[in-house]
Design a protein that fits this description.
899 residues, globular, disordered N terminus, 33 helices, single chain, alpha/beta
């Protein structure tokens, strides 16, 4: 390595660390040192001066050479050799050996203080002597670096001392304008680092640029537990959170495609009926007056509200909130319009009308006046005026039972007014366009040619083509947003950013391949690379080897989960990960084998003539007593077939993708029912009430109300959470903590990991629940850990553990590998085998090739999504699929087992 004699000075936090680093890896020698200062020399220069941050005065002879905060850049003759040497020495290489767009081959090394040392291939990057005589001596770019703009030094995101959730004082550098994939087992700390630290701090700092008044209307974001984050850019999080429960939100409104379509119809539709608002079902101008733009009207089944064989005193009203002696019941029973002792079937026509439909009016009950209204009148006002998805679960169950929703007869479910439906382009109205599959709508829009709306049509075409490209061409614009899966919702959000002119943004993705067939993963990879190539930093939390393979940089966390994780196991390129010896590295090439021999079915669940959604008169026999995997591309009809025709049958238990509604008070102990036997055991051992051992009841610390934390609202500034000083975060009163069970108080028990608690509770219901939690791979989870801190994979497995407790012979699991590391998939397969071997039937909707290969029986739905799917294209064993089928699934499973 040769470098010219140029002095470069950099300010650092720890002079000794940087001095040692340069001496060890780059052959520097210390020439002079003092408190907060060191000067190093190299046989071929440059002289490097390190100053401790805050020191302003340089030695007299060096003042004119001060050039603080720059990249220290070298050209080298043998770049691959230097790369191999530094890797072998364990130097923290932050960007792997790569070709830059301008032709240079380079990599970067970062010292403990974050000083960027860039090594460039002389032959490729520094140029050659073209004057006639070939030059063989390496030259330097250090001089150029000393005169470069300081802005070019911010090439990495520096994370220092991250301790969010289970992170263990984590420090690392993440290259900017690159695609970085974060890997590790579920619960290793990936989400805590990417979402809870990097993205959270970026968004918090952006929020702080607004005035205090504006901030008062924004969510309060706490500061992540980290010593330092440097060189952050604006972060956009594209996660799998559902897109809200508002029944007025559709794919069209969420992507703005419907807004553009409305403008097109307002300009070109015949007859012309007004502005674009005349085509909006969310404004009075365009909505159907009968259903008010919802598209559905409700009718009430009276026999689901009352038992006609009983009187009011006998509990005839079965509506939640109307039990005998309840407030609502007393008003009705004492209204005087009918006798509470008369059976409902004996009511006169007038009494029946007053009971069900009477309009609100004042009645006197005793010495008080109250408002009386008929039962149906009251239900329509109190329940049916609310959005269904925002209701409490027991209220929603009642509404589903008692209320029948049908398409509005006036608008036929289109949500729009008659005027909006009358306006057409080429014989098609806007409702027809919205109901088209997006791939078909894109073809229709391409046929429209009018100079007056040409720019708008171009934008609409690009948007629709992006939806098709991202694998959502089977959706329609009128599809309610609340019905999208987490993966579909994430991809819809992603479309918004593909055409953005913004650059130098940090995009953060949470398992973007969730719900994608292997055929669609390549398209997702292409989109991630397009975002990167626009000059953005792309951070992806992902487990799929296909996505890890395209990464510029990989960060592997672990080695385990929970308290056994949160450490940096590897940081570097994919080639280095394969040879790193980490759990992820070892499993990159791991492949599950085709199951041989397969188990023999002991019966079948038959489906005949299925035609829900896009299914085309499907008839299929699903075998019992074996592991059946239903697969096919996204939108092919898998969920329509299984959830539409098998869920709800006797003995069938479903673990679907609906999220757990976690709160600060919910934890694995409360969610699984484990807390009840624990409280009972404490109460029995100490001769006191069980309610004392609930942090949500009598035993709660009065100062923090059982949370263990105090949330301080700082008005317009971000709120602060601090440990409660009275209970020291233990959540219970001092009296409760004096009661012990085998030497442990309730707070200590709830702080146990599942594996430790399993040994602590040797018998009974508690041990059974803990055993199921351990079986699904959650042995590291603390019993009292708030649900809102769990990852998606952890929540999915928690639901599976709960469902395993139900007495069932058939389990339906919807993509159980969501959020699972490759090593955890093997554990899941063992669990599924155990369920089958215990006499159960397991039906899994899944895209993961390891699960397909492990199945006894495969049902492949396709051949593609939307109206191009809905057929059974293969039934049989995995070996038969690989040997002779020609479906998309067969091709990818064939490649999987061959590799």
């Amino acid at each position: 390595m040769q470098i010219t004699s140029t002095a470069i000075s950099l300010t650092v936090d720890d002079v000794t660390a940087s001095t040692t680093f340069l001496a060890r890896h780059f052959g520097y020698e210390e020439a002079m040192s003092a408190e907060g200062f060191a000067s190093l020399t190299h046989p071929s220069g440059p002289q490097v001066i390190f100053l401790r941050t805050g020191i302003e005065v340089l030695p007299e002879g060096l003042r004119d050479r001060h050039a603080a905060g720059l990249i220290l850049a070298f050209t080298v003759a043998d770049l691959p050799g230097e790369y191999a040497r530094l890797r072998a020495e364990g130097a923290p290489i932050t960007m792997g050996l790569r070709e830059e767009p301008w032709g240079e081959r380079l990599f970067q090394v970062t010292d403990p203080n974050g000083v960027v040392i860039q090594l460039v291939d002389w032959a490729a990057g520094a140029g050659e002597d073209t004057s006639g005589a070939a030059s063989t001596d390496p030259r330097t770019t250090a001089t150029a670096a000393a005169t470069a703009a300081a802005a070019d030094s911010h090439q990495v995101i520096q994370v220092r001392g991250a301790r969010e959730n289970n992170l263990v004082d984590l420090s690392l550098d993440i290259p900017k304008r690159r695609l970085t994939v974060f890997t590790g087992v579920s619960g290793s700390g990936k989400s805590s680092l990417v979402f809870g630290t990097i993205a959270a701090e970026s968004q918090r700092m952006i929020n702080e640029t607004y005035t205090a008044f504006i901030q008062s209307f924004m969510p309060s974001l706490g500061r992540p537990d980290v010593d330092g984050l440097h060189n952050l850019s604006a972060a956009i999080v594209v996660d799998q959170e559902r897109m809200g429960a508002n029944s007025r939100s559709t794919v069209g409104t969420a992507t703005d495609a419907y807004t553009m379509l409305r403008i097109v119809f307002s300009r070109l539709g015949s007859p012309h009926i007004g502005t674009s608002s005349a085509f909006s079902f969310n404004t009075p101008d365009g909505m159907c007056p009968r259903c008010e733009g919802i598209g559905q009207v409700s009718d009430i089944a009276v026999d689901q509200l009352v038992d006609r064989e009983l009187s009011l005193n006998e509990g005839a009203i079965t509506v939640p909130g109307f039990a005998v002696d309840s407030w609502y019941w007393q008003i009705m029973a004492n209204s005087g319009f009918y006798s509470p002792d008369t059976k409902l079937k004996e009511f006169t026509e007038r009494e029946w009308a007053d009971f069900l439909h009477k309009a609100p009016l004042k009645v006197r009950v005793g010495s008080n006046n109250f408002t009386y209204e008929g039962l149906i009148t009251k239900i329509q006002r109190t329940y049916l005026s609310k959005d269904r998805e925002s209701m409490q679960s027991h209220i929603r169950a009642f509404v589903d039972r008692a209320v029948v929703f049908t398409d509005c007869p006036d608008c036929a479910g289109t949500r729009l007014s008659a005027a909006a439906l009358s306006s057409r382009i080429d014989g098609v109205n806007i409702a027809d366009c919205s109901s088209l599959q997006i791939s078909d709508l894109a073809a229709f829009v391409r046929r429209i040619d009018d100079p007056g709306v040409a720019p708008l049509l171009a934008n609409l075409r690009d948007l629709l083509d992006s939806l098709v490209e991202i694998g959502l061409g089977y959706l329609s614009l009128d599809r309610p947003s609340a019905t999208l899966s987490g993966g579909e919702a994430q991809r819809v959000k992603m479309v918004r950013h593909l055409g953005s002119s913004l650059t130098d943004i940090t995009y953060v993705f949470d398992e973007p391949t969730t719900g994608l067939h292997p055929h669609d993963i390549q398209r997702m990879n292409d989109l991630l690379l397009r975002l990167r190539d626009k000059g953005n930093t792309v951070l992806v939390v992902e487990h799929k080897p296909e996505v890890i393979a395209i990464a510029d940089h990989v960060v592997d966390l672990g080695p385990g989960a929970g308290t056994a994780g949160g450490q940096l196991c590897y940081s570097g390129d994919v080639a280095g990960l394969r040879t790193s010896g980490t759990l992820t590295g070892r499993h990159l090439g791991h492949r599950a084998r085709l199951r041989e021999p397969v188990r023999t079915p002991r019966g079948h669940l038959s489906v005949k003539g299925a035609d829900l959604h896009n299914l085309k008169d499907v008839s299929v026999d699903v075998p019992l007593g074996v592991l059946t995997v239903v697969t096919g591309v996204a939108g092919s009809g898998k969920s329509s077939l299984i959830h539409g025709y098998l869920a709800g049958r006797d003995g069938v238990t479903v673990a679907d993708q609906s999220p757990i509604r976690g709160s600060r008070r919910s934890n694995p102990a409360t969610y699984t029912g484990l807390l009840n036997p624990i409280r009972t055991a404490f109460a029995k051992a100490n001769g006191v009430k069980a309610a004392l051992f609930s942090a949500n009841s009598e035993g709660a610390c009065p100062k923090c109300n059982g949370l263990g934390l105090l949330y301080t609202d700082l008005a317009m500034m971000a709120g602060v959470a601090s440990v409660c000083e009275e209970c020291e975060g233990k959540r219970f009163t001092p009296e409760v903590l004096t009661y012990l069970l085998r030497g442990k108080n309730i707070s200590e028990v709830l702080d146990m990991p599942v594996a430790e608690a399993y040994e602590f509770f040797a018998t009974g219901q508690a041990r059974a629940i803990l055993g199921r939690l351990a079986d699904v791979g959650l042995g590291y989870l603390r019993l009292g850990q708030p649900l809102n801190t769990l990852s998606g994979g952890e929540r999915q497995r928690l639901k599976l553990a709960v469902n395993m407790a139900e007495k069932s012979s058939t389990y339906i699991l919807d993509e159980p590998t969501t959020g699972l590391h490759m090593a955890d998939v093997d554990k899941l397969l063992a669990l599924l085998d155990r369920l089958v071997d215990d006499g159960n039937s397991v039906i899994v909707i899944e895209h993961h090739q390891a699960v397909m290969a492990h199945a006894d029986w495969l049902i492949d739905i396709g051949p593609r999504g939307g109206h191009d799917g809905g057929q059974v294209v293969f039934e049989g064993t995995p070996a038969a699929l690989v040997a002779r089928a020609d479906t998309l699934t067969a091709r990818h499973l064939r490649e999987y087992v061959a590799s």
